[in-house]
Amino acid sequence: MTTVVLIVDDSQPMRELIKMTLAGVAEIVGECADGADALAAYKRLRPDWVLMDIGMKNMDGITATRQITAAHPQARIMIVTDYNDDDLRRAAREAGACQFIVKENLLDILEILPAE
């Protein structure tokens, strides 16, 4: 069975890097540039995992995570961010994220999403 992933990041180059990192491990079913778009995409695509950035324009990743997990308690959201900050980790966990990865350690995603 293939792991299905939605990537939410305002940087197109970062979305491409994440896709390359996940090659052979996950099927990318969607990409969004902000949290507001992620809400509709999650409802439509029902991915196994959402890889969510924090700092985005229209809706940040913490707010989007909170809204997605409130509507879909089974959602698995991994924060993928530049910020290695304890307060953000706590906020992400309180919003419903189940993982937190710093972008400089992007390969850590592969430990969470093993090849199937």
What features would you highlight for this structure?
116 residues, alpha/beta, 5 strands, 5 helices, Rossmann fold
Q: Short description, anyone?
A:
The chain has 116 residues and is an alpha/beta fold.
Major beta sheet summary = 5 strands, parallel
Which segments are poorly predicted (pLDDT under 50) over 5 or more consecutive residues? Answer: none
Strand order of the largest sheet: 2-1-3-4-5
The CATH architecture of the domain at 35-81 and 98-106 is 3-Layer(aba) Sandwich
What is the residue-mean pLDDT, rounded to a whole number? Answer: 93
Q: Determine the number of helices (DSSP H or I, runs of at least 4 residues).
A: 5
Q: Provide the gyration radius in Å.
A: 13 Å
Q: From the helix content, strand content and strand pairing, which structural class follows? A: alpha/beta
Helix content: 40-55%
How would you name the CATH homologous superfamily of the domain at 35-81 and 98-106? Response regulator
Strand content: 15-25%
At the fold tier of CATH, the topology name of the domain at 35-81 and 98-106 is: Rossmann fold
Give the beta-strand count. 5
> So what's the CATH class of the domain at 35-81 and 98-106?
Alpha Beta
